[in-house]
Write a structure and sequence with these properties.
The chain is of the alpha+beta class. It is 49% helix and 13% strand. The protein has 5 domains: 168 residues, no CATH class; 161 residues, no CATH class; 145 residues; 37 residues, no CATH class; 85 residues, no CATH class. The two termini are 69 Å apart. This is Periplasmic folding chaperone.
């Protein structure tokens, strides 16, 4: 064998070895690793569910859930790349929102959870038993349709390895897709025969009943009989058998104040430390650093730019309690203008802001037109002329000017001689237009100027023709500017705080963010050191020193609080619960603080102890920096721990019967002719409500979404309460409990509107009954629940609580 042939043979052997190694790494190794992890020494692997004799252990279910999550994320990335290359995934169930540019669904279930994993494995097995199958060729076609032919097979699986950190290869992906698609196919096939999507097929009578629930409105009188009032009449020492029975029924149920069934299981709890950076506090600190001169300078700068200007019709009252005397100059300044040598003796603040400039303009215009002394009929020459005479003279001049304009129009139509332009001079018409807009003194002076112009020889015509038009326009502009009032501004004292706050907004935000960042670094350093230190089994290594957040917060201008232990329900009353994770704050799906701390199965990973988290409340401009200091997992307590709660639940159930009997007795008495209002005890008048409503059985809160009609005065009413009210005989008193059965209401319906005939007329219009047609009465859900129960019975399905 030649050296070249030997080299080629060795090369083939090497390539074959590399291919086998790659297959081992991407197919066999993850499975072996998973098996080793779940069956290592000291590991417990409880069974979560069983069906068809198959046990689903916690490790198998958890591993399936993790692969489901990784598959969903990979398909999202694959869809984004397909869209980026100009394609569109064409598989059933894929949806893309064009407005938000977000992928809504990738074609398989997008909510991984352990419960969903159990059901997926169960339904996929049932689908295969009934003859459904998906081979690799079918999945190849599905993937090609998903990528719209824009990515090669090599590119698809290279992206898969990168997105899953080499934890999934083609085998794992196809196994997951096969189970998800088969389970979905089986579930849709079963649902198609019982429901039209999520809305069941309904009869016209169902539509009419739904229409009444939305459009018929009732008014009632109601008195609430409180169950709490009868607890004292119950047995304080129930039998042990009754205690055990109630405990067993509710030990695995969480307490719910909206349910009549007692629950004793303990929710997960946690305690927290957090520091709070309030933007307003940092603004106030920065404002304190500003001098009064800096704020005034900023006021003047903004004022010069047009800020703080008041509208012309806004009147600023002076800071005095004395009434302001009327100023006649504000309405007719031209008729009361005194002689130039006798200025008015009134205070300066009684004049409008624009009186002085207007007077000065008028003075200049009176002195400009001629060197001759003023005529006898001007105000400067004859101060004894009354305002009425002046107005009459002004009116005569306007009428005379109007007449001249008409004559000028006639002459223009007659095509006047071009040699004689002194009679009809357009320039003089311009001057007369100014006369109409000026005050009396200016009009008079202009009239004198017109008379002089008429007697001047024609040799002066070029001079008067060259200048009067421009002069008139300038005069008109000056006159209009003089008529405009000077702008007025808000006083400095009124806007001082506003200016100061806006001056420091940027520095305040920067100071707050720097304080939060500095403390976050300290917390992160401790968190890393604590993780390295571990569980403390190594006695030679001292534990890291926990930082004093309270002292650091005071040093940095932050607030400090220590809260807990709280479960997720109790935590909702704390202000920090209104904050969301910082990086998601500006999105519509910000992760709430409680979800971060306690986790959401399959969606949000629970925050570890002493791991700093930054959350923000944009509405209140607050930034929180927190960590969890203690936590306790949810658990089922022993009977001795919750014995008092069990006894209280038994006594409350007994008190319900007594309250119900009392309410029914009161209703019977009222039906006998006694007014309900008269039967209400004096010390319970606050529980009697008169003329509540009108309210409907259901309220629409969105297309296809409905809630129980809102009666704010009553406590937690439900569907059964509404059914009792709307189906009652209007002449009778009836009894109905609220949802949690802690109040029994005695009810008298006093009104039911509109009339049935009117409702039928409205219902006859298709557009008016469309909402009733889209209302679900729960039938589809009940049928599907029955389907699940049938499958569970057929497969011998059992699901167990995860041990704590």
């Amino acid at each position: 064998m030649s050296p070249l042939e030997l080299f080629r043979r060795n090369q083939k052997v090497t390539m074959t070895f590399l291919i086998l190694l790659a297959m081992f790494a991407f197919v066999v190794l993850p499975t072996v690793s998973e098996y080793m992890q779940r069956s290592g020494p000291g590991m417990t692997d409880p069974v979560l569910a069983e069906f068809n004799g198959v046990s689903l252990t916690a490790s198998r279910v958890n591993g399936f859930t993790q692969k489901h999550y990784a598959t969903v994320q990979y398909l999202r990335k694959l869809a984004e790349e397909t869209i980026r290359r100009g394609g569109t995934p064409k598989v059933p169930g894929f949806t893309f929102d064009q407005q938000s540019n977000q992928i809504q669904s990738v074609g398989i279930n997008g909510s991984p959870s352990d419960d969903m994993s159990i059901r997926t494995l169960q339904f996929a097995a049932e689908a295969q038993e009934q003859g459904f199958a998906l081979d690799d060729t079918s999945l190849d076609i599905w993937m090609e349709q998903f990528t719209d032919g824009k990515l090669s097979e090599r590119e698809m699986f290279a992206l898969l390895r990168r997105e899953t950190n080499n934890q999934m290869g083609q085998y794992q992906l196809y196994d997951m897709l096969r189970k998800q698609l088969l389970a979905n196919l089986y579930l849709r096939g079963a649902s198609a025969t019982v429901a039209r999507g999520q809305f069941p097929l309904q009869s016209p009578l169902d539509h009419w009943n739904n229409f009444l629930k939305l459009n018929q409105k009732a008014t009632i009188n109601a008195y609430g009989v409180l169950v709490d009032d009868y607890v004292a009449e119950t047995d304080a020492n129930p039998s042990e058998s009754e205690v055990v029975a109630v405990y067993e029924a509710g030990k695995d149920r969480y307490p719910n104040d909206q349910s009549p069934e007692p629950g004793f299981r303990r929710r997960e709890t946690a305690s927290f430390e957090y520091v709070l950076g309030e933007l307003q506090a940092f603004r106030d600190a920065e404002v304190a650093k500003l001098s009064e001169e800096e704020i005034k300078a900023e006021y003047e700068r903004r004022k010069a730019g047009g800020a703080f200007q008041l509208p012309a019709d806004v009147v600023i009252l002076p800071e005095t309690t004395e009434p302001e005397s009327p100023a006649p100059e504000m309405t007719e300044p031209e008729t009361t203008e005194p002689a130039e040598t006798t200025p008015p003796a009134e205070p300066a603040d009684s004049e409008p802001a624009d009186s002085a400039p207007a007077a000065e303009e008028a003075k200049e215009m009176k002195e400009e037109p001629t060197d001759e002394p003023p005529a006898e009929n001007t105000p400067a020459a004859d101060n004894s002329e009354s305002a009425e005479d002046t107005q009459a003279a002004q009116q005569e001049q306007v009428e005379a000017f109007s007449k001249e304009l008409e004559e000028a129009g006639d002459l223009d139509d007659a095509t006047p001689d071009t040699d004689d332009q002194s009679t009809i001079d357009p320039d003089h018409n311009g001057v007369r237009l100014v006369v109409m807009q000026s005050d009396v003194s200016t009009e008079t002076a202009s009239s004198q100027q017109d008379e002089e112009s008429a007697t001047e020889p024609e040799t002066t015509e070029p001079e008067t023709a060259a200048e009067p038009e421009t002069s008139a326009e300038e005069t008109a502009t000056e006159e209009m500017e003089a008529a405009e009032p000077e702008p007025r501004y808000r006083p400095f004292e009124e806007v001082r705080d506003q200016i100061a706050q806006t001056m420091v907004d940027g520095p305040a935000r920067e100071a707050r963010d720097q304080a939060i960042a500095k403390l976050r670094n300290v917390m992160r350093k401790y968190s890393r050191a604590r993780a390295i230190y571990g569980d403390g089994t190594d006695a030679t290594t001292p534990p890291p020193e926990r930082p004093n957040l309270k002292a650091l917060a005071e040093e940095l201008g932050l607030s400090y609080r220590k809260i807990g232990p709280f479960d997720p329900v109790a935590l909702a009353d704390e202000p920090i619960a209104d904050s969301v994770e910082e990086s998601t704050a500006l999105t519509q799906r910000g992760v709430p603080f409680a979800a971060m701390m306690f986790g959401v199965e399959g969606q949000v990973i629970k925050q570890e102890l002493f791991t700093p988290a930054t959350t923000v409340d944009l509405e209140s401009q607050r930034t929180y920096l927190s960590w969890k200091t203690e936590e306790k997992e949810a658990y089922t307590p022993e009977l001795d721990e919750v014995r008092d709660e069990v006894v209280a639940a038994i006594r409350f159930a007994q008190a319900r019967e007594l309250a119900k009997q009392a309410a029914e007795a009161m209703a019977e008495t009222a039906n006998g002719g006694t007014s309900l209002e008269e039967l209400v005890p004096e010390d319970r008048q606050e529980n009697y409500f008169k003329d509540l409503g009108p309210f409907s059985w259901l309220n629409m809160v969105g297309f296809g979404s409905f809630t129980i009609g809102n009666i704010r005065e009553l406590d937690s009413i439900d569907e059964d309460f509404m059914k009792t009210v709307f189906n009652a005989d209007g002449a009778k008193h009836v009894v109905a409990p609220n949802g949690p059965e802690r109040v029994y209401y005695v009810i008298k319906r006093t009104s039911l509107q509109p009339a049935t005939s009117d409702l039928r007329a409205i219902f006859s219009q298709q557009s008016e009954r469309i909402m009733a047609m889209f209302m679900s009465d729960g039938t589809a859900g009940k049928v599907q629940q029955g389907f699940f129960e049938t499958i569970d019975e057929k497969t011998g399905f059992e699901q167990y609580q995860l041990p704590q």
